[in-house]
Automatic annotation (TrEMBL):
PROSITE patterns: PGM_PMM (PS00710). The lineage of its organism: Eukaryota, Metazoa, Chordata, Craniata, Vertebrata. It is found in: Cytoplasm. This is Phosphoglucomutase 5. The gene is PGM5. The keyword Zinc-finger does not apply. It comes from Papio anubis (Olive baboon).
Length: 567
């Protein structure tokens, strides 16, 4: 800390009308918008900082991290300069700006920070032509609840100025403390650059039996694994935790160098985009495979020969095997949470364990109240996200370590574990069809007309014959959620059609991006008989899909011949 105090400037600006966070305090837009539109990023950052009460903001500590995508370093510099000017006392930042979303949640909770800012667009592509995002996590480490997101949006619509210290420069590569003297500030502004993995790794050590996992990966019956970080944030975590700490060979980890454009790929861990891992697993050399998204909160599990574990099955299997984890043996199991579109496989496990299941809208923020109040300690979503109350975010690496713990305890392969689960609880055939990049007006009218159709009383009892299948409508609704903790009501969270055989169709608009719309169609069918457990999900679900397409007219009204992505 040398020289004259750094000046604090107030810069005039004008509001943008499109800065409504799309859930969890996040704003996701094309990178070019953040780069090219004057004050677009400063406006949103000021709105986030101003949403924190002044008495809580002055001198507080916040955490800042990114998934390493293009524009992150520039954005971090702006966040630092504005945090200093707005009275934040200390920032904790991952070295080189890198921090996974689970690690940010971990650090917020560990040091009791006021919140955190995560620069990520999750599983969306990076680079100049990709997407960029800003996400705000609150003091419990979880995504901002809707009341905070609404406050951010209201501020963004009336913003007239923002505060910044444009001459403040930090060295993201140098571990340790950096202090800065600011004009009209009594205390120096402090930045601490930390190892992105260490604090999070220490938490994982308290949850898992690392000795058992290390024996699995290094012992005489060594399980060969293949883990794909997809050139996102998880590279350093995979190398330090799975390779250095748990003994997996260095060549078990691939695509572990974070790249600004993720190597030109979608950092999305599913069968459509994680093809490098899928092909490696199909060869039969590896017994366990996993991939992570850009910011490390989502994951995919594959078994030998490319055996795919659906996210809903993964959640249910984790729930059924929680005694394999020391953390749950000590803490017990209080309840489970799942998003409404997630399959009901979890519910069958919960019933057998006599614990409640809380069905929420899509979005991890809805689980935070449940976990904070002690109602549940395992939650999951069909979008490849699972986590427990050790954090307030979904956690990809945690889920992978759970799976390795289950394999170590049961001494079975991934496929054997899944098939045993199906034999005990039945199989929930499940698919999600994403229609991406649609015109928002078109999707609005599709959903409006669908809601009018399926919520009309005359729709109940209707029968749909497709081939040899006849489906009778038992129940329909527009899903709404009443938070059992604070009574908050969240409406219009998707349209549900439940048939007499418990099959389900769900239509939902995704709010993850504000530029074009994504319409999601979910289909689920239950099969108890083990002789029916070896069918292809899309073949089993094709009659339901035919019904969905007929009543929604998605293809006719969008001009699409099929979905963009099927998971």
């Amino acid at each position: 800390m040398e020289g004259s105090p750094i000046p604090v400037l107030t810069v005039p600006t004008a509001p943008y009308e499109d800065q409504r966070p799309t859930g969890g305090g996040g704003l996701r837009r094309p990178t070019g918008l953040f780069e090219g539109q004057r004050n677009y990023l400063p406006n949103f950052i000021q709105s986030v900082l101003s949403s924190i009460d002044l008495r809580d903001r002055q001198g507080c500590t916040m955490v800042v991290g990114s998934d390493g995508r293009y524009f992150s370093r520039t954005a971090i510099e702006i966040v630092v300069q504005m945090a200093a000017a707005n009275g934040i006392g200390r920032l904790i930042i991952g070295q080189n700006g890198i921090l996974s979303t689970p690690a940010v949640s971990c650090i917020i909770r560990k040091i009791k920070a006021a919140g955190g800012i995560i620069l990520t667009a999750s599983h969306c592509p990076g680079g100049p032509g990709g997407e960029f995002g800003v996400k705000f996590n609150v003091a419990n480490g979880g995504p901002a609840p809707d009341v905070v997101s609404d406050k951010i949006y209201q501020i963004s619509k009336t913003i007239e100025e923002y505060a910044i210290c444009p001459d403040l420069r930090i060295d993201l590569s140098r571990l340790g403390r950096q202090e800065f003297d600011l004009e009209n500030k009594f205390k120096p502004f402090r930045v601490e650059i930390v190892d992105p993995v260490d604090i999070y790794l220490n938490l994982l050590r308290t949850i898992f039996d690392f000795h058992a996992i290390k024996s699995l990966l290094t012992g005489p019956s060594q399980l060969k694994i293949r883990v794909d970080a997809m050139h996102g944030v998880m590279g350093p975590y995979v190398r330090k935790v799975l390779c250095d700490e748990l003994g997996a060979p260095a060549n078990s980890a691939i695509n572990c160098v974070p790249l600004e454009d993720f190597g030109g790929q979608h950092p999305d861990p599913n069968l459509t985009y994680a093809t490098t891992l899928l092909e490696a697993m199909k060869g039969g050399e590896y017994g366990f495979g996993a991939a992570f998204d850009a910011d490390g909160d989502r994951y995919m599990i594959l078994g030998q020969n490319g055996f795919f574990v659906s996210p809903s099955d993964s959640l249910a299997i984790i729930a059924a095997n929680l005694p394999c984890i020391p953390y749950f043996r000590q803490m017990g199991v209080r309840g489970f949470g799942r998003s409404m579109p997630t399959s009901m496989a979890l519910d069958r496990v919960a019933k057998s364990m006599k614990v409640p299941v809380y069905e929420t809208p899509a979005g991890w923020r809805f689980f935070s109240n449940l976990m904070d109040s002690g109602r549940c300690n395992l939650c999951g979503e069909e979008s490849f996200g699972t986590g427990s109350d050790h954090l307030r975010e979904k956690d990809g690496l945690w889920a992978v370590l759970v799976w390795l713990s289950i394999i170590a305890a049961r001494k079975q392969s991934v496929e054997e574990i899944v098939r045993d689960h199906w034999a005990k609880f039945g199989r929930h055939y499940y698919c999600r069809f994403d229609y991406e990049g649609l015109d928002p007006k078109t999707t609005y009218y599709i959903m409006r007309d669908l809601e009018a159709l399926v919520t009309d009383k005359s729709f109940i009892g209707q029968q749909f014959a497709v081939g040899s299948h006849v489906y009778s409508v038992a129940k329909t609704d527009s899903f709404e959620y009443v938070d059992p903790v604070d009574g908050t009501v969240t409406k219009k969270q998707g349209l549900r059609i439940i048939f007499s055989d418990a099959s389900r169709l769900i239509f939902r608009l995704s709010s993850s991006s504000g530029v074009r719309a994504t319409l999601r169609l979910y289909a689920e069918s239950y099969e108890r008989d083990p002789s029916g457990h070896d069918q292809e999900p899309q073949a089993v679900l094709s009659p339901l899909i035919a019904i969905a397409l007929k009543i929604s007219q998605i293809h006719e009204r969008t001009g699409r011949r099929g979905p963009t992505v099927i998971t």
